[in-house]
Write a structure and sequence with these properties.
This is Histone deacetylase. Belongs to the histone deacetylase family. Keywords: Hydrolase. InterPro entries: HDAC_classIV, HDACs, His_deacetylse_dom, His_deacetylse_dom_sf, Ureohydrolase_dom_sf. One of its GO terms (molecular function) is hydrolase activity. It is a single chain. This protein is an alpha/beta fold and 300 residues long. It has a single domain, classed as Histone deacetylase domain (Arginase, Chain A). Helix content is 44%, strand content 12%. It has an 8-stranded parallel beta sheet with strand order 2-1-3-8-7-4-5-6, with helices on both faces. Helix 9 links the parallel strand 7 and strand 8. Helix 9 runs parallel beside helix 10. The chain is globular, with a radius of gyration of 17 Å.
């Protein structure tokens, strides 16, 4: 069983250039069902997150300006989406999907959010198509509810988890680890507990050697009782917004390293899918599906 949060709210108005990346959220569940990786019963559609968990991470005035659709035009441009009620509804459900996924991961070892990975959302602002930071909200939820005392966030998207780093910069209960393209957006980086910025065109051998070294070392060092994994596939050589050169098979091997370490040490892990912007949608779906294939092999 692989618990998977699915969000059937994708029909908010988007500029033409943003419609294609959103398609993956509709196609990925279909692929998982087609291959028998997941069954209908594995999927759950979350409601809105309780606002008290949102306010615990994000500035209230900022959140209220999203809810009221009063965020100023400059802040909206920074996010990259025009605000709409459906878009905010989707953000609140994504956050709740990650929260519920955490609860399910305690039972099954691993849980997924088809969307999520909104790591460019800061305490008091959004950027890079991110408004509410789903894994930060869920991590804080675990701490507040005393379901976890030490959390490790493994962010392997090609873009640094700058919002996540800012949110937890003074929180010793959460260790933020980001491996990203050094020259990729965001061009002004925040400071995670451990940042590794990779040079352009870093390929499989160097990338996987680093992941294989640092993931088990950090788990041993920090001894987390819960792990969040942001499994962006924008590290692929084909990605339009990334500067790395990892192959589809290398990306799959990355997932194996992370998830096998979580399984071996029996640390529950919540996975949010993050970015993926290759020119062909089939490449994006294949790379994201690999993450689920790996989890099915390891956990079933």
């Amino acid at each position: 069983m692989l618990p998977i949060a699915f969000h059937p709210i994708y029909k908010h108005p988007l500029p033409e250039g943003h419609k294609f990346p959103m398609l993956k959220y509709e196609l990925l569940p279909q692929q998982l069902l087609l291959e028998g990786i997941a069954e209908e019963s594995d999927f759950f559609a979350p409601d809105r997150a309780d606002l008290r968990y949102i306010y615990a991470v994000h500035d209230k005035d900022y959140v209220d300006s999203l809810l009221d659709l009063t965020l100023d035009a400059r802040a909206q441009r920074k996010i990259g989406f025009p605000l709409s009620a459906a878009l905010i509804e989707r953000e609140l459900r994504i956050a709740q999907g990650t929260i519920i996924g955490c609860e399910k991961a305690f039972e099954t070892g691993v849980a997924f959010n088809i969307a999520g990975g909104t790591h460019h959302a800061f305490t008091n602002r959004g950027e890079g198509f991110c408004m509410l930071n789903d894994q930060a909200i869920a991590a804080n939820y675990l701490l507040e509810e005393k379901l976890a005392s030490k959390i490790l966030i493994i962010d392997l998207d090609v873009h640094q988890g700058n919002g996540t780093a800012e949110i937890f910069q003074h929180n010793s209960n959460v260790f933020t680890f980001s491996v990203h393209g050094q020259t990729n957006y965001p061009f002004s980086k925040e400071v995670s507990d451990l940042d590794i910025g990779l040079p352009n065109r870093t390929a499989d051998d160097e990338y996987l050697k680093l992941i294989n070294e640092y993931v088990p070392k950090l788990i041993d060092q920090e001894k987390p009782d819960f792990i969040f994994y942001l499994s962006g596939v924008d590290i692929l050589e084909s990605d339009k917004l990334g500067n790395l050169s990892v192959s589809v098979e290398g990306c799959k091997r990355r997932d194996e390293i992370v998830l096998s370490n979580c399984k071996k040490l029996q640390i529950p892990v919540q996975v949010s899918m993050g970015g993926g912007y290759s020119p062909e949608i089939k490449t994006i779906i294949e790379a994201h599906t690999n993450t689920y294939r790996v989890a099915a092999d390891i956990y079933n």
